[in-house]
Amino acid sequence: MWSVIEKDDLMMNGLTSHDFRSAIHTLGISGRVVCLHTSLRSFGRIQAPSPDMAAKMVINAFLDEGCTLLVPTFSRIFEVAPPPSAMFVPHNALDTRNINQLWYDYLVAIRSDYQTPHFTPQTTLLDVRDMGILPTVLLQMDGHIRGNHPLMSFTAIGDHAETLVKSQQPDDGYAPMRELIGLNGVVGLLGVGYERMSLLHYAEKLAGRRLFIRWAMNADGEIIPAEVGGCSNGFEKFAPYLNPLAKVAIVGKSLWRFYEAEDVATRASARIKQTPTITQCDNPACAFCRDVLSQK
Ligand SMILES: [Zn+2]
Prior knowledge:
Blueprint lengths: L1 E4 L4 H4 L3 H10 L6 E6 L12 H14 L3 E5 L6 E2 L20 H13 L14 H4 L1 H6 L6 E2 L7 E4 L3 H5 L9 H8 L3 E5 L8 H8 L5 E6 L5 E6 L10 H4 L4 E5 L2 E7 H14 L12 H7 L3
Helix pairs in contact: 2-3, 9-11
Bound molecules: zinc ion (ZN).
């Protein structure tokens, strides 16, 4: 389904809240639970005084249309060096004999700068550069709820926020994807590709894969294992199977694609079972892509 949101003066004045709401309405996702992966830059000009205000305008457009929003708010900044027990975790894309301590020391220094030595769901720190501006802004908004995962939390806002994230735990990182499906939710790619679609890592789990383990410190100062996803650089290979499921709109300069979460999970996990190499990236040295196939 194609719908084009166009105005003669679009490039002159930029997109407004009205443009976003009419796109959401036209796509038929008003009132739905929506997981968003967004490149704000892809939209072109937005009628807002700052990028933060532009992000807030997009978020509020979804909320005003009765949607609940779910976004990844990952924070690998809280990762700590693997404990000695890490050597007993097989196929974990980690060479435990060759740990880069300097990197972990650097993360400790950053956390100290922000005076947040460990993660809690109340923390608003995240990996800004990887996550982008929309999750960063959503995490600052009143009423948001962040899942309890030190490295890979999801954050939600809106009526179903609590249901979406409350079951997330360090050893159940993709619980919000399961809840998204349970709530009959949709996934939106707003100017980004399949490599950003967290749901595809959940599809890997559904296909029987164990994901990866990294470590973080809890509030008691203990080092705890946490489930994380692997490499997603090859996920564009799902395009021939998932593109037919998309509802599409052009908003400003951005391609918005929306998918029923359950349909994506079902189709992608079946594909992974049938052709496990579909998730592989192009880098022959990628330890994640090597180990995710060698688990058997
Ligand atoms: Zn890879």
